[in-house]
Design a protein that fits this description.
The complex is a heterodimer of chains A (258) and B (65). In chain A, helix 3 (77-91) crosses helix 4 and helix 7 (189-197) packs parallel to helix 9 (215-235). Chain A has a five-stranded parallel sheet. In chain A, strands 6-7-8 form a three-stranded parallel sheet. Chain A has a two-stranded antiparallel ribbon with strand order 1-2. Chain A is an alpha/beta fold and 258 residues long. Chain A has one domain: TIM Barrel (Alpha-Beta Barrel), CATH 3.20.20. Chain A is globular. Helix content of chain A is 37%, strand content 16%. With 65 residues, chain B is mainly beta. Chain B has one domain: Beta-grasp domain (Ubiquitin-like (UB roll), Roll). Chain B is 11% helix and 37% strand. Strand 4 (39-46) of chain A pairs antiparallel with strand 5 (55-62) of chain B, so a sheet runs across the interface.
């Protein structure tokens, strides 16, 4: 499997993990390990003064893992820039998953504000990985603005519905000069494998692993699916026939009753 | 003096952001501090004087995808 390179950094794993929705931090840490991921997202929240809960970072920060702070909760580019500066200060990394979703019902990314924020954040020295609509034109604009990747959604976030946007993802992958990370909607290892077979550079998975019956086993299953899908892509898939006419892989010599 | 930390009124003897962070027993690492919606780098905390009614926000890591 080829290494994934983002902003000059090499990754052996093409599976990115989110840290939301796990039953406990300990379980999350085990899932991170089982997934083999080298990129883990974290959000930010206000500190509660009397609350002495254990620190999430102690369960996430490991050698070889790139922390990817997100800007969840911001509603526009201005708030995103503020959140990014807070994240860089808190976590000591200039890597950023830019997500701007003003609508709390569907959490769909705001394309206009995302593009604007990407332009500003790149100027401020951030490595910007924007979560975005599966819009090929937007993805080109994000790339031109200096985004390190584009992260189009497969389906609305948390829905586990798979690659509902597959036709647009294909166009995005074909046109992109930066890695394409399919983010949101991936609900099963087969969805991740499909994305990788299409030529996606990586998948970001959270809900499908976190809410599985056994998140650690599911993390391992996603690891295998992403590796299988990528390996298949690199091996070169056989073309699919447009018609339904069978083409045998065994010789059809009628040796029994000739 | 009284300042607001994450929308809570806090009575403190601290005179700088650095001493406020210490006073509130906040961890030195893994947090970011903003005053009036502007991030203040930790290198400036010691010299950043508190004033009455100042609005401070302190954030840390949370679970999220």
């Amino acid at each position: 499997m080829e290494k994934l390179v983002i902003a000059g950094r090499e990754f052996s794993s093409r599976l990115f993990l989110g840290t939301g929705k796990f039953d406990s931090n300990a379980l999350m840490a085990k899932a991170i390990e089982a997934s083999g991921t080298e990129m883990v997202t974290v959000a930010m929240k206000r500190v509660e003064l009397e609350d002495k809960e254990d620190d999430l970072l102690t369960h996430v920060v490991r050698p070889g893992i790139q922390l990817l702070p997100n800007t969840s909760g911001v509603r526009n580019a201005e708030e995103a820039v503020f959140a990014a500066q807070m994240a860089r200060e808190a976590f000591g990394t200039n890597w950023l998953k830019l997500e701007i979703h003003p609508d709390p019902r569907y959490l769909l990314p705001d394309s206009t504000e995302t593009l604007k924020a990407t332009e500003e954040l790149v100027k401020l020295g951030f490595v910007v990985l924007p979560y975005c609509q599966a819009d090929p034109t937007l993805c080109k604009h994000l790339e031109e603005a200096g985004a390190a990747t584009v992260m189009p959604l497969g389906a609305p976030i948390g829905t586990n519905k798979g690659l509902q946007t597959r036709d647009f993802l294909r166009i995005i992958i074909e046109q992109a000069n930066v890695p394409v990370v399919v983010d949101a909607g991936i609900g099963a290892p087969s969805h991740a494998a499909e994305a990788m077979e299409m030529g996606a550079s990586a998948c970001l998975v959270n809900t499908a692993i976190a809410v599985a019956g056994d998140p650690v086993a599911m993390a391992a299953a996603f690891k295998q699916a992403v590796e299988a899908g990528r390996t298949a892509y690199e091996a070169g898939l056989g073309l699919q026939a447009e018609n339904m006419v069978a083409e045998a892989s065994s010789p059809l010599t009628a040796f029994l009753n000739e | 003096m009284k300042v607001w930390v994450n929308n809570k009124e806090v009575e403190t003897a601290a005179v700088s952001l650095a001493s406020l962070v210490e006073d509130l027993s906040l961890p030195a690492q893994g947090i970011a501090v903003a005053v009036e919606n502007r991030m203040v780098p930790r290198t400036q905390w010691a010299d950043y004087a508190l004033s009455e009614g100042m609005r401070v926000v302190v954030v840390k890591a949370a679970c999220g995808g």
